[in-house]
# Entry
Amino acid sequence: MSRSSLSLLGLLLTACAPTVTGPVQPLPDLTATITIPDPERLRVIVMGDQGTGTEVQRQVAAAMQAVCAAQGCDLGIGLGDNFYPAGPKSADSPLFKTRFEDLYGPLNIPFLMIPGNHDESGFFGGDGSDARGAEAQIAYGKLNPQWVMPGRTYRAPVNTLAEFFVVDTAPLAAYLPVRRASERPGGPWDMAQRAWLIQALGNSTARWKIVLGHHPLFSNGKHGDAGSYDGLPFAFQRGTRCAICMGWRVARQI
# Structure
């Protein structure tokens, strides 16, 4: 979809679907505890925007296996857009086997998984408007312990060495207004996620505190920095709330 088409569709949907405001209900403090062999050493391998299941994705997975076999890996991280062009709609989708189990299962390490805008596709692949895609991945995590994703927002302590804090940035930089009006930028869900992150960071005693989300605050890639993604006309598309809530203010707590 072209930038002009996105702008027009965004304008029409924004006019018809304003953000819901109201009381902020706290998010549950979901925790995934990761155990590693050496409490003083953590070896992490990170991937994101994994691909469409082509030979290129298989080659990358094979290279990951080679690196981990040679140097050791304790933990994997999937930074979102775990599936292209859109995420599975149910936990029993065969995509989980062909795009995750077959490729990364041989690593035999847990993966902290994060939802991205393609995982939360609604009207078209990558629009980030429907969190039900992320919920299908949460449900899959209950079937496969290697896929660690107890919620869209959660934390994962690793002994006292490190603690990872996962946030869902897809609703904060969606190309279209998200399906659940309460989850739009500046709404109750956005504020609750921000409050959870600030409190969780403040309570953590880990040596390293690492916040994980799909949309980067700063990037030299084609999408640009949070607050100006793709030069799109609307603040909700440009990731303005990603910058405000997940970056500049939260950074003071780390």
Q: What stands out?
A: Residues 149 and 181 are 24 Å apart (CA to CA). The beta strands are 44-47, 75-78, 111-113, 147-148, 154-158, 162-166, 208-212. The helical segments are 3-16, 55-71, 95-104, 132-141, 188-203, 235-238, 240-248. The chain is about 30% helix and 10% strand.
